[in-house]
Prior knowledge:
The protein is of the alpha/beta class and 298 residues long. It has helices spanning 4-16, 19-26, 30-44, 60-87, 100-104, 107-117, 131-139, 202-213, 229-235, 277-295; strands at 49-52, 55-58, 92-99, 121-128, 145-149, 158-170, 183-185, 193-197, 219-224, 241-244, 255-260, 264-270. Strands 3, 4, 5, 6, 7, 10, 11 and 12 form an 8-stranded mixed sheet that branches. Strands 1-2 form a two-stranded antiparallel ribbon. A two-stranded parallel ribbon has the order 8-9.
Amino acid sequence: MISLRQLEYLVTVVDEGSFTRAAELLHVTQPALSHQVQALERAIGAALLERSPRGVTLTPAGRAMLPHARAALADAAGAVSAVRRAAGLSAGELRLAAVYSVSLGVLPAALRVWSRRHPGVDVRLFEHRHADELAQAMAGGQADLAIGPRPHGWAGPVHTLGEEEFVIAVSRDDPLAGRQAAEARLEELRERRWVHYAPGNGLADILDRACSAAGFQPKIAVRAEQTASAPILAAAGLGPALIPANVVPAGYDGHTLKPVPRVTRELTAYTRAAPDALCAAFLDLLLDTTRERLARPW
C-alpha cells in the first residue's frame, strides 16, 4: 500500500538530489528515509532511484512515477484546504514553518493568543536552521505559512513583520557589563573569542557579516548548534554572542549590550498563494503581536 508520506519522501529526495539533505529537510533519520523509499519501491515493483557517490538520479520507472507523486501530494493539500474552508476557524490543522530564532522569540506570543482563541485548531511547527532551508521547505509544500527573513525571489505573497534588533550577550562579570552605556562597538571585540553558531545556522552568516563590516573575522570559542544555547554559553563566560534581542529569556543570567553599528534583519511571513481563512486569521494575529514585540525588544 502506497502512502502519501512515502510519496513526499520520494519527491523530497529527488528535489534535494541527496538522501542526507532530504532527511535533514524532513526531520527524519537517513535510515528511516531510505527504508520508506525502499518500501515504496517494493510496493511499485520497480526501482525508482539510482544511488551513486555523486548523488541520486531517477530510473525510467522513477521518471514515470514522479509527476503522479507530485499530483497526489497537491491533491492532498487541496483536500485539506477544502476541509478548512468548510470548517471555518473552529477546527483543522495550521502548519507553520520558521527559523529557529523566530520559534524562540516572536512566535510563542502569537501561538499563546491563538491557542486561547482557537482551541480546536491543531498547530504543527517545522523549524529550520537557515532562511534558504526554510524557503525551500515552504516551496515544497511543507507548511501553510513561513516566518523568517525575506526569501530571495519569492513569487507568492510576502508580509513584513518588522525589523529585528540584535544584541551582544556577555556574562555579568565581563568587563563590558560594567559600562554605564549599554553598548559596545564591534571592533572592540576584535580579539575576543566568540560564541559562534554552526555553519548551517543562519545566525552564523549574520555574525560573520557584522564582524567583517567592522574589519575582522571573529575568533571562535565554541560553535552552538541550537540558537537557544548561544545566550546561555555567553552568560557562562565563554565569550560574547550576537543574538536577536527578542530571544533573550526573562531573568537572563547574562548581560546584553547594543552593538555599534546596529545589527538588524527584516522578518517576514510568506505563503505560496493567497492564504485560506485559517491561515489568514493567524497571519493577522502574527502581524499584530510580532510588530508589538519587535518595537520593544529591550
